[in-house]
């Protein structure tokens, strides 16, 4: 029973992401999700009391691998430059294998109009940005990145470029290899700052 409830909740979230991918965040309709799931809207609201609660679950799903990726980096004992590459590569692979999830990245600004959702989006973004920034600082301390580099701005460039490429990928109908493109862009971004 518990397994089927968890499965139903996850199925609702995944279908919601598909709807957002097709119609945008404003087009997310519990009626459409219910239709695609072959359930009543009431069933959705048994699992998620409000649409906002459903959106929070979607954001949880969107960021579900954040701590796993950070833990993998720690376990692999990667140097900070390799850790940055691993971090970006992990997300590029995840998004390439599940392109619908990139719709959530592109909806950040729309979600910011609701305080609870805005707080959640802000935390996800700041955690990711902070993780990259901390790796840059560590690389500076280890003499691997130029010491006068503004770690905050370099982290902004890396994460911002990633988001921009995801948008380009979506607009181009996913017609290029996301991971390959992002990793080559990351090399262009990082190389001028790396001390050999």
The assembly state of the depicted protein chains is: single chain
Number of helices: 11
Radius of gyration: 19 Å
Q: Total strand count, please?
A: 0
Helical residue percent? Answer: over 70%
Strand percentage: under 5%
Q: Based on Cα principal axes, name the global outline.
A: elongated
Structural class: mainly alpha
Q: Uncertain regions: pLDDT < 50 for 5+ in a row?
A: none
What's the mean pLDDT score? 93
The main pleated sheet reads as: none
Order of helices and strands: HHHHHHHHHHH
Distance from N terminus to C terminus (CA atoms, Å) equals 57 Å
Description of the molecule:
The protein contains eleven helices and no strands. It has 196 residues and is mostly helical. The longest helix has 27 residues. It is elongated and about 60 Å long.
């Amino acid at each position: 029973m518990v397994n089927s409830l968890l499965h139903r909740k996850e199925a609702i979230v995944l279908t919601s992401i598909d709807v957002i991918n097709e119609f945008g965040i404003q087009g997310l309709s519990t009626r459409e999700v219910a239709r695609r799931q072959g359930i009543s809207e009431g069933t959705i609201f048994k699992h998620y009391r409000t649409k906002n609660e459903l959106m929070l679950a979607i954001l949880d799903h969107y960021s579900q691998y954040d701590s796993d990726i950070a833990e993998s980096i720690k376990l692999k004992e990667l140097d900070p430059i390799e850790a940055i590459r691993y971090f970006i590569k992990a997300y590029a692979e995840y998004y390439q294998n599940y392109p619908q999830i990139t719709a959530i990245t592109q909806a950040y600004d729309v979600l910011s109009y609701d305080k609870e959702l805005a707080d959640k989006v802000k935390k996800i973004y700041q955690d990711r940005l902070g993780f990259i920034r901390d790796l840059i600082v560590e690389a500076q301390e280890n003499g691997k990145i130029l010491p006068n580099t503004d770690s905050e701005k370099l982290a902004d460039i890396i994460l911002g470029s990633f988001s921009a490429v995801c948008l380009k990928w979506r607009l181009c109908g996913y017609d290029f290899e996301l991971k390959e493109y992002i990793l080559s862009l990351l090399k262009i971004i990082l190389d001028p700052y790396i001390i050999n």
